[in-house]
Amino acid sequence: MSAPQRATLEAAPARADVRRNRRRLLDAARAAFTEGGVDAPPSEIARRAGVGVGTLYRHFPDRASLVDAVLGDRYDTLRDEADRLLDACATSGAFAALTTWLDLFACHLALFQGMADSLRPTLLEPAVDAARGCDAMLAAWDRLFTRAQQSGAIRRDARPRDILRAVNALRWATQGTPTATQEADRLRALLLDGLRYQHTDGIRAGR
Amino acid sequence: MSAPQRATLEAAPARADVRRNRRRLLDAARAAFTEGGVDAPPSEIARRAGVGVGTLYRHFPDRASLVDAVLGDRYDTLRDEADRLLDACATSGAFAALTTWLDLFACHLALFQGMADSLRPTLLEPAVDAARGCDAMLAAWDRLFTRAQQSGAIRRDARPRDILRAVNALRWATQGTPTATQEADRLRALLLDGLRYQHTDGIRAGR
DNA sequence: ACCTGAACACCGTTCAAGT
DNA sequence: ACCTGAACACCGTTCAAGT
């Protein structure tokens, strides 16, 4: 009864000026995020958009919803890439598919300053956040990861969500430095070598 | 001329009530950190200590100095442990020494909530913070790490500071969950396997 | 000298008034 | 319905007044 109405309202707001405000807010937020990271002050975003702060809060009740709206269909794209790479496993190998996708994921994390912090609760298990439109992506990653395990490309005693959390964390570790991306890549390569390390003696690393 | 005076003043404040206030502030801060993490509000710390907020700021101008004061000689202890383990390399092996020390480091990071965030700038290179009394520890870690590289226990294309940043980040990734320590241990073990992974074909992991 | 806590500055969010 | 921005709540820091 009310479900279709809500869907319609969310998809296409009634008035033209409301759509225009939403568009302006998204553009302003993207610009502010690019310059100051996802923690850019609401007042600045509203000022850039030429609207009052109240309008910002009316359109996007909390920061997560604003960030997600700016991100748009990025998570869908990442899911599609994961599915595409799953098909490519047969020819290119499961490990290559894994690292290729994680490069894309790392690139996504580097979009704005503060993305790693923003995503941390979402990647926890059980997730603290309601999943922010990235459920499908996470599921696709799980499939890709499981395939790599089944093909013997990576060790079996690792969990898919762990790796995402770790990649996110390694990005966080280097943020704010001029060579952040380069250093995060290096740390990720190290982690991935650990992931494909095959134990020959049954002894766990560490203690 | 003025250096000895300053040292004397820092070591033993003139008045008894000043020493008492400092002691109370440290006890209160430790308690507040334990309950609410290192970001515990100054007002709460002052209230617990039974002093005004101004007294807190007089004794500890910024939060980093308060955290470091509460930490006390922990960094010296960690440095001593690193030196001790350096001597033990001959008998127990360099890799075991490395992982043992990193376990201690990880344990240190778990002392209070928010420790990872607090330490991140300090572990950057070039360090953003003035080194917070952990220079000696970092130097000792460098020695332990170099020894492990020379003995062939770990790969040569890794940097000591990288690993510390990564271990810090992996702790950050799991903080706030009931099984944070356990999960951080698991991720660290993965990273360490990557660290001792010896390339047999010259091909780097990932692209 | 040192301590106090009101005052100040700042920032995120809400909501009464206006269109 | 939606928009505005002053008002509110909150929190970290400072500093004039007091001891």
Attribute tags:
mainly alpha, elongated, 0% strand, 207 residues, disordered C terminus, homodimer, 71% helix, DNA-binding
Description:
The structure is a homodimer of 207-residue chains. Chain A is an all-alpha fold. Helix content of chain A is 71%, strand content 0%. Chain A is built from 11 helices and no strands. In chain A, helix 2 packs across helix 3, helix 6 runs antiparallel to helix 7 and helix 7 runs antiparallel to helix 11. Chain A is elongated. The N and C termini of chain A lie far apart (60 Å). The N terminus and C terminus of chain A are likely disordered. Chains A and B meet through helix 7, helix 8, helix 10 and helix 11 of A and helix 7, helix 8, helix 10 and helix 11 of B. Chain A binds a DNA duplex (19 and 19 nucleotides) through helix 2 and helix 4.
